[in-house]
C-alpha cells in the first residue's frame, strides 16, 4: 500500500479545485431518464476502452499496424484523435451515422458523468486531505454499490440497459483503477462478481423481450457486451472471479443471436478468449421464453451480498461533501476546511460539488 502522503498544497488551493454544479444543468439524473431523448443513441468515436484518448497511445499504434492500408474513411475516422466532439464524431446522433459501430445512449453518458462526479467527491487528495490510503478506492466501491441499487430500482429494460452501458464505459475507460488497490480483495471480488451477474441477468431479460438481435432497439449491444468481456477478462483472474463462466455466458448469447461483438480483435487470438468461446459452445442458455425471470440467480446473489456487506450497502459515508466542517478540518493537511462558506451554502441549497 502507498505510504501516507505529505501536504503539497494548502486548503486554499484545494478549494480552488472544486466547484459547485447546478443540478438542473444538466437536470438531476432521475429527471434526465424521463426525458424523451434519454434513450436516443449517440456516437463515440472509438471503442470504449480507448474513448477519450488522443490517438497517440501505444495501443492505438499497435491497432494501426494491424489495419489494412486501404482502410476506408470511416475506419480512419474511428482511429482519429478524440477531442470529445469538437471535430470527432463523439456525441453526434447515431441516426446520422448509421454505420458507426460505437454508440451509446444519452442516459448512459449521464450515468457515467454522475458516477464520476460522485466518485470525485470521495477522493481526499482532491481537497488537500488525508484519511487513509484506500479511501478513494473504497469510495469507488461505495458508488458501485449505489449503481447496483439503481439497477435494482430500475423499472424498465431501457433504464437497466443504460446502467449496464454506463458501467461498461466506466470500467473500460479505467475510471475504476483505484479500486484494484484496496486491501479487501474479497470485497472487490464480491462486487465485481455481482455486477457480472447483473449484466448476464440483463441479457436474459433482453432475450425474453426479443431484444437480443443484430437489429435490436438496444443498438449498443455488440459494443457493451464486448466491453464487459474485456473487463472481466482483465480483472477476473486477479480476484478469483470465474471470468470464464461469466464471459462464456456473454459469448453464448452473442452466438445464439448472431450479435457482432465490437472491439475485441486485439484479444480474440489469446488462449483465454479461445477458452471462453469453447466454454460458450458447451453452455446451455435458458430458453428465450423462460418466464421464471431470474435464470442466473440475480435476486439470490443480491440478497446474499447485502447480508454479507450490509444490511445497507452504498450510501454516501465516504463522500467528503457530506462530512461536517470539523471532520474535514481534522483530515485536512493544514487543518482548515477545504470548503469555504459559499461552497457549504451551495451544497445546503442542493448544488452538486465536484473538483474543477
Automatic annotation (TrEMBL):
<feature type="compositionally biased region" description="Acidic residues">
    <location>
        <begin position="54"/>
        <end position="74"/>
    </location>
</feature>
<feature type="region of interest" description="Disordered">
    <location>
        <begin position="1"/>
        <end position="34"/>
    </location>
</feature>
<feature type="region of interest" description="Disordered">
    <location>
        <begin position="48"/>
        <end position="80"/>
    </location>
</feature>
<protein>
    <submittedName>
        <fullName>Uncharacterized protein</fullName>
    </submittedName>
</protein>
Amino acid at each position: 500500500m502507498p505510504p501516507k502522503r505529505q501536504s503539497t498544497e494548502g486548503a486554499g488551493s484545494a478549494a480552488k479545485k472544486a466547484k459547485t454544479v447546478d443540478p438542473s444543468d444538466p437536470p438531476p439524473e432521475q429527471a434526465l431518464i424521463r426525458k424523451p431523448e434519454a434513450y436516443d443513441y449517440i456516437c463515440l468515436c472509438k471503442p470504449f476502452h480507448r474513448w477519450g484518448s488522443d490517438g497517440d497511445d501505444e495501443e492505438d499504434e499497435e491497432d494501426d499496424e494491424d489495419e489494412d492500408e486501404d482502410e476506408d474513411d470511416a475506419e480512419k475516422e474511428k482511429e482519429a484523435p478524440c477531442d470529445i466532439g469538437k471535430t470527432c464524431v463523439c456525441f453526434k446522433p447515431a441516426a446520422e451515422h448509421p454505420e458507426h459501430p460505437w454508440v451509446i445512449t444519452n442516459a448512459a453518458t449521464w450515468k457515467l458523468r454522475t458516477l464520476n462526479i460522485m466518485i470525485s467527491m470521495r477522493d481526499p487528495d482532491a481537497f488537500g486531505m488525508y484519511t487513509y490510503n484506500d479511501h478513494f478506492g473504497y469510495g469507488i466501491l461505495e458508488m458501485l454499490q449505489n449503481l447496483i441499487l439503481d439497477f435494482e430500482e430500475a423499472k424498465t429494460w431501457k433504464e437497466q440497459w443504460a446502467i449496464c452501458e454506463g458501467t461498461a464505459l466506466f470500467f473500460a475507460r479505467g475510471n475504476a483503477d483505484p479500486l484494484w488497490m484496496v486491501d479487501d480483495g474479497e470485497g472487490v471480488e464480491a462486487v465485481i462478481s455481482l455486477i457480472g451477474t447483473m449484466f448476464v441477468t440483463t441479457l436474459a431479460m433482453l432475450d425474453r423481450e426479443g431484444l437480443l438481435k443484430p437489429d435490436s432497439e438496444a443498438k449498443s449491444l455488440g459494443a457493451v457486451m464486448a466491453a464487459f468481456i474485456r473487463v472481466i477478462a482483465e480483472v477476473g483472474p486477479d480476484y478469483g472471479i470465474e471470468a470464464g463462466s461469466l464471459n462464456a455466458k456473454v459469448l453464448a448469447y452473442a452466438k445464439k443471436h448472431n450479435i457482432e461483438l465490437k472491439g475485441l480483435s486485439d484479444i480474440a487470438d489469446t488462449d483465454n478468449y479461445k477458452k471462453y468461446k469453447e466454454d460458450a459452445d458447451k453452455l446451455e442458455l435458458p430458453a428465450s421464453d423462460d418466464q421464471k425471470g431470474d435464470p442466473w440467480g440475480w435476486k439470490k446473489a443480491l440478497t446474499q451480498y447485502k447480508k454479507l456487506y450490509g444490511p445497507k450497502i452504498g450510501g454516501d459515508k465516504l463522500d467528503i461533501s457530506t462530512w461536517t466542517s470539523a471532520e474535514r478540518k481534522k483530515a485536512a493537511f493544514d487543518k482548515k476546511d477545504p470548503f469555504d462558506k459559499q461552497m457549504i451554502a451551495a451544497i445546503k441549497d442542493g448544488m452538486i460539488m465536484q473538483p474543477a
